[in-house]
Amino acid sequence: MIHKELVRTRSKGAWIALIILVIITTLAMMLSWMVQTDFGRVHVERVRFTGENGKVIAAKLMIPDGIDADNPAPGLIYLHGYQNNKETNAPYCIEAARRGFVVLNIDTLGRGKSQAQINENKPGFDPVYGAQTAWNYLLDLPMVDADNCGLVFHYFFSAGSGSGLAQPGV
Predict the structure, then answer these.
(1) Total structural domains in the chain?
(2) 30 Cβ contact list (under 8 Å, min separation 6)
(3) 15, 52, 62, 65: which could join 41 in a potential S-S bond, CB 3.0 to 4.6 Å?
């Protein structure tokens, strides 16, 4: 009899703990969404696009509220460091979007959710790891002022990718 009551008490406590943890998790997800979107003032969407070599690049596109084809904004591409992915630098991208930039935060080829490049000696290898494809994608977005775009990168690996974009206007 005492054993059954003890089991019931523990079971009831476990359910209460589970409910509390679900509530805390839900609140944490809501807070995360609010921070990432600047409390709804930045629209964040996951995008995928394909390069000339057929490799798919995954990215997050961050668009400030009020920015559209009729009211374009400057654009930025953010390239992460060597052993990172787009989530590593999300705080910088969120801050740039809060300040009015359309930000394309990519997973460079072979990192995160972008397709891998196996061998630099094979045809189709992209020496700038998708940066040129991302640049072209950004410039084609209707809400981006293509005359006012830039590149932000972190770490030596990305510097190589960024330097490959050496062209007028970059």
Answers:
(1) 2
(2) none
(3) 65
Domain housing 83: 42-163
- Residues with Cβ within 8 Å of 24's Cβ and at least 6 positions away in sequence, in order, are none
Neighbours of 87 (CB within 10 A): 14
Dump pLDDT digits (tens) for 63-111: 999 999 999 999 999 987 666 667 778 888 899 999 999 999 988 876 7
Global confidence as pTM: 0.76
**Pair 14, 69 in one domain:** no
pLDDT of residue 62: 95
Contact 88, 49 (CB under 8 A): no
169 in any annotated domain: no
**Which phi and psi angles does 3 have, rounded to 5°?**
-60, -45
* Contact present, 81 and 158 (Cβ < 8 Å): yes
